[in-house]
Amino acid sequence: MSGKEGAKHEGAAGANGSGRGTGAQSRKATSASKTASSGRATTARRKTSTASTAKRKTTTKRATGRKKKKNKSIFRRIPLWVLVGCLCVVFVAYAVFLYRSFVGPYSFRWKALYGDVEYPEGSVRGIDISHYQEDIDWEMLRNADLQGSAVQFVFIKATEGSDQFDKNFNRNFFEAKRNGLVRGAYHFFSSQTPSKNQAEFFCRMVQLEPGDLPPVLDVEVNVGGSTGYSRAQLRKDVLKWLRIVEQHYGVKPIIYASYKFKTQYLDGKEFADYPFWIAHYYVDKLQYEGDWAFWQHTDVGKVHGIGGNVDVDLFNGEYEDLLDLCIPDSLAE
């Protein structure tokens, strides 16, 4: 190759190299320009998105603020005296509920147990006892005071069911008469044995005399539900016991029952002629509206001569009326 051709070739080659370099630089510049544009666009979109998010948050905060202000404004519009009045009404209602549900029904029992004993008004008072009172000091009992009244009568448990005899009956029954108290005997009724057998058992075990109170049937059994013992069967059994015992002693027996039990199960003309001994505790007035002879008003009475609690009763009448209720001398003939 001659020198001119070599120079020419080198020049061409240099020109071609220079052209390629210029094209590469141009492409790089174009690419950089596109990248910069893309970056600016991305940045712009991010700023727009950020601005949009900030705007939504601001809008949400404003809305929340408006809602909170709206809630606060409801209470602010209610006068203070109305709020105080409502709270007072709620407090009074709650206090009444507590009194009627817990305090009222048991206040007389609390007084009897822990406070001053208050018995209902009346002048002829007595008690009823069983072996649960254990040994009784009869001399102290004879001289005991029941709010200004002496103990003037005593009911004594004799039998239960068709085969249970109170272990202290004979002694208590004897001591009551020896200490000048009007005495009576009662049978605790059971729904588990025939009433005929119960009546015959009582008549066989208890020898009443003139001057004693009529025999008593104590009725406080569970009726209905899972017991299977119906109201109709109860009434039938009670009437059978009463008629057998009345025929044996010649006087109508006394029926003992709570006032609710009496009105629910022992109402009606079949029982209208029998004297009733009503149990209703811890009240200053008997709620039973029918005729009654005796009222057992507490089971936590305190009487000198008896350790522990004892049932206390009130007779509906004067002492002479109590004696008139007793078995007359004519039946001894």
Give a quick rundown of the structure.
The chain is an alpha/beta fold and 333 residues long.
Question: Which helices and strands, and how do they pair?
Answer:
Blueprint: H1 3-77, H2 80-114, E1 125-129, H3 138-142, E2 145-146, E3 149-160, E4 164-165, H4 169-178, E5 182-188, H5 195-205, E6 216-218, H6 231-249, E7 254-258, H7 259-265, E8 276-279, E9 294-301, E10 310-315, H8 319-325
Describe the structure.
The protein has an eight-stranded mixed barrel with strand order 1-3-5-6-7-8-9-10, surrounded by six helices. The radius of gyration is 50 Å and the shape is globular. It has helices spanning 3-77, 80-114, 138-142, 169-178, 195-205, 231-249, 259-265, 319-325, and strands spanning 125-129, 145-146, 149-160, 164-165, 182-188, 216-218, 254-258, 276-279, 294-301, 310-315. It has 333 residues and is of the alpha/beta class.
CATH topology of the largest domain: TIM Barrel
Number of distinct beta strands: 10
How many domains in all? 3
Reading off the top of the CATH hierarchy, the class of the largest domain is best stated as Alpha Beta
List the uncertain runs.
Answer: 2-24
Shape: globular
As a percent range, the share of strand residues is 15-25%
Q: Roughly how many Å apart are the termini? A: 180 Å
What is the CATH superfamily of the largest domain? Glycosidases
- The CATH architecture category of the largest domain equals Alpha-Beta Barrel
